Amino acid sequence: MRITSARLYPLEVPMSRPIKMAGETLTHAHTLLLRLTDEAGREGWGEASAAPLMTGETLASIAASTEYLVTKLLGQSVAEAAAISPLQEACLYGNPSAKSCVETALMDLLAQRAGLPLYQMLAGAEMASATRRIDMLHMLASGEVEAEIEEAMALRRQGYRQWKIKVGAGDSASDLQRIQRLCALLEGDVVSADANQALSVLAASALAQAGASSGLAFLEQPYRVGMMAEMVALHRVSGLDLCADESIHALHDIVEHGAAGAAQGASLKLIKLGGTQALVQAGRLCLARGMKVNLACKVAETTISAAATAHAGFALREVAWGFSMSNRYLANDVCAQPLTPIDGAVFASQLSLPGLGFAPEAERLREFASAALPVKEFSV
Known about the structure:
Elements: E1 3-21, E2 24-38, E3 43-49, H1 59-73, H2 84-91, H3 96-114, H4 118-123, E4 133-135, E5 137-140, H5 145-156, E6 162-166, H6 172-185, E7 190-194, H7 201-214, E8 218-220, H8 228-238, E9 241-244, H9 251-260, E10 265-268, H10 270-273, H11 276-288, E11 292-296, H12 303-313, E12 323-324, E13 345-347, H13 362-367, E14 376-379
Parallel strand pairs: 5-6, 6-7, 7-8, 8-9, 9-10, 10-11, 11-12
Antiparallel strand pairs: 1-2, 1-14, 2-3, 4-13
């Protein structure tokens, strides 16, 4: 397969409503879409969103790194999936978001060429044991408990059974009340809390102990990256499972956190790990070490990234801590028929077309074009 052209689309897509997280409130998704074309005219798509507090990459830096990669790869032949990482590593150090964007587009093309849905190519010999359903994990992120109760009840009637309460943006007393009330209301469901590194040791201890007694399933990334000893102590004292997110960027991070008892599961994202193959490898490592898997898109990404993450998830045998599919939080998707949950889950049957199975509409790419960064095209 020979890559003959590439086009980069920096986008600013409005959210349906603001998402309040510790450290930032998001009103728009700042994301890059990439279209690669091969010698047969097939188009492959990839995406990477800006996450300065997680990967250190802005939309401008992702666009620049992706441009650098595609100009190096244009005209080259990619015979198999295993060749993608060595090609990219030979061109550029680091920059996992840009590499994920390119890898996803190349994997889309390779799977189309093979006539297979991407998840079947990713699963390979493990396909027989792979999951066919991944439950959605819905964020409760307004900070207003009455509004969150109403939101959760409406979605529960639609089949949702996994929830993530965003904490750390307001005062600790309010977070404790939200956790206790929502856990009681959603008894029997998988309810978690996500602090995005924002908690002090004192606040995390109070929240974890209250969460454990209320039925909270896990607490995600309570502390800043590097505070592994504090994570270990928090789990020992509270008995609550902890999920590492911002701390996980490579396979050795999973090994270190699991071995130390600092995390009992991990939140896996394409932009942290560098693409669909790396996400599958990380997920399999978690499962082999007895750790739970949560799949997540950056808030917010479009159906392109949502589908790529789902494909990777369907190459695993279990995603116990759900899937935060963030295209659901956009006011409008770039795809006319976006990937949409059914009864609170995504099913492998929704990803039955060859490759990624989704492509954006040209009109919507124009509508959401970044005001600061231009669309760029390159060809052999």
